[in-house]
Amino acid sequence: MAKVTHESIHADSPIDYDPVGVLNVLAASEGRQVMSIEMGGTKVSSTIYTVEDGRFVIAEQPEVQESSRGIHYLPFLESQAHKAAAFNMPVGISYPGKTEEDRPITAVNVDLFVEDLEHEYAGRFGELFPSFSFLANDAVAGLAATAITVKRELPKAENMLYVINGTGFGLAVLKDGQLVGTEAGHVEAVWELNPYHQLRPCGMFEQDFPCVERVAASGAGIEDIWKQLTGEALSGSEIVQRLVMGGRIPRELYENSIRAIASVTTKVAKLNDFLIDGDNVVIVTHGGAFEVPGYYRRFKDTMDHNLRFDVPIYNFEQNPCAEGAALGALAKDLAA
Ligand SMILES: [Zn+2]
Description:
The protein is of the alpha/beta class. Helices cover 40% and strands 22% of the residues.
């Protein structure tokens, strides 16, 4: 593993975040509607929530646009922007890459959308959405939402690591009341973590080496390596079927993925001194990889071993990124 430093993981500037304060935001937003846009590498979806009894209730069936590299995202988002403005709903956006205020920084799996946005709206969501309120990296949004649930169940939890492994691999940190997004998936994958010799370069930050995401993410890593090895373009769940049937290559790919992701997570924990006061540390996981048989369990065992304590790990199957974006939007809207 290459060095994990604040620089190599491209840590964002921290956002103040108090999970208890956010519960107050929800209480103060009773009856309010909010639009949450969730962007991913294969689809973008728009969900309208109503706040009822301090929780989000889906007000109408989410609308979805599927495409690769974000190619049809802009017209979809224009129609959503119209709707949000017409109903005066604040808009929160969860984005699969780095962000700066209302600007998405280009990410490999949505690069064509970012070009479109640059061209039509000066690269700003604030220009596209008249009622724009909040934009965050998807791991940050996911952690913002899950931290509330974790806090309700384990009040002493203060410091959290959020690990997402789906199309890509992302990691966000909650420490001392501050949320920090990182690009920890894009640190270099050293050869011990690259047994099938993935050569495809990272592609982020003009890095020409294969990164951890390229070997360990369910989509950008495992599906891609499978295709290179076999010539077959299979989905993640089809590869999992091969795993369940006893396939050696799928097993090795997933075992390596667990090793790689646990290694990066451990190093980010150490970077944040999460080893010293382990009793208030929680890891939150999300994404398709954690639903693969045995994956969550092995990840938990590896983290306990690496950190030398029994670290509480909460896995969220429901997608928390959309709720996190909605929370951020309501909080900004209240403060405005
Ligand atoms: Zn990368």
